[in-house]
Amino acid sequence: xxxxxxxxxxxxxxxxxxxxxxxxxxxxxxxxxxxxxxxxxxxxxxxxxxxxxxxxxxxxxxxxxxxxxxxxxxxxxxxxxxxxxxxxxxxxxxxxxxxxxxxxxxxxxxxxxxxxxxxxxxxxxxxxxxxxxxxxxxxxxxxxxxxxxxxxxxxxxxxxxxxxxxxxxxxxxxxxxxxxxxxxxxxxxxxxxxxxxxxxxxxxxxxxxxxxxxxxxxxxxxxxxxxxxxxxxxxxxxxxxxxxxxx
Length: 247
What we know:
- The protein is mainly alpha-helical.
- It has a three-stranded antiparallel sheet with strand order 1-2-3, with no helix packed on it.
């Protein structure tokens, strides 16, 4: 009995590789936004991935606690304001009686002290009211993005999203780096030589320790106990040799 085997065409192709894992995607460009007050979130005005601008409303907090604090501060201001008016009236009455010598000076001083205490208490209540009102602005959390940050996104986002443009930017950057490096190498191979006139478009190369001059130091290590005259003769011969071969 003859069995027929199936014939399958072999194809050469790349197969995608998939990895299934558990993790979190975290952006490298994050801005942490906090509020100066604590409270319950009343409304979130943005959604994930939305493009925002400076001053856009992000989150609004519940203002019940702050509104209550403002009302209490206003009530305190009214209370202490009335107390100050009463203290001022009493002071004026006692001053009149004191002029008529109907009350002693100690009584007048006591009333004046009460008036001063009422005034200071009213000032403290007014300060508390202003503080409570200033807290009201923090229930609206807005975007702090600046123009420079927004310009960065406008410039960089297309480069990151478009592979062709990203490759072009990398190529241009690499060519600029190579051109900068070739300026140094050109100093050694140019026809004018290292000490010759500067090539247009290039910069002068400085070598330590003279920095801004095309020069270098030569150290002559003579044997120990060599006379100074011999060392001087060798140094002069080396200098003469370099003058004859400037390049």
